[in-house]
């Protein structure tokens, strides 16, 4: 979903809220089903780094805000990444 939004700035701007809600929902589902979230953390980490380091990144801060506000133990991995950026 994130890759589709990155292709076009206009599409990404229109879908930012829905994309953020969808990604947050997927994290919640993974939590409830006790699934491994390793790949989710990897995707979020890659995109969080791009958000802060790439000037032309079209992703919205809303994509990260929803997930970082969750009570999710993998947030610590993302928090450590934020400190290193």
Strands, helices and their partners?
Blueprint: H1 2-6, H2 9-32, H3 38-53, H4 62-68, H5 75-84
Helix pairs in contact: 2-4, 3-5
Short account of what is shown:
Helices cover 73% and strands 0% of the residues.
Question: Which labels suit this protein?
Answer:
85 residues, mainly alpha, globular
What about the largest sheet? none
Total DSSP E strands: 0
Domain count, please report it.
Answer: 1
- The percent range for helix content is over 70%
Low-pLDDT segments? none
Q: What's the N-to-C terminus distance?
A: 24 Å
What is the gyration radius calculated from CA atoms?
A: 13 Å
Proportion of residues in β-strands: under 5%
Descriptive notes:
- With 85 residues, this protein is mainly α.
- It has one domain.
- It is globular and about 35 Å long.
- The relative contact order is 0.18.
- The mean pLDDT is 85.
């Amino acid at each position: 979903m994130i890759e589709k939004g990155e292709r076009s700035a206009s599409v990404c701007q229109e879908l930012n809220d829905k994309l953020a809600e969808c990604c947050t929902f997927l994290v919640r589902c993974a939590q409830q089903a006790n699934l491994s979230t390793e790949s989710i953390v990897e995707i979020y980490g890659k995109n969080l780094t791009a958000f802060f380091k790439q000037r032309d990144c079209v992703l919205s801060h809303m994509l990260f805000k929803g997930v970082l506000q969750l009570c999710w133990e993998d947030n610590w991995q993302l928090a450590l990444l934020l400190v290193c950026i």
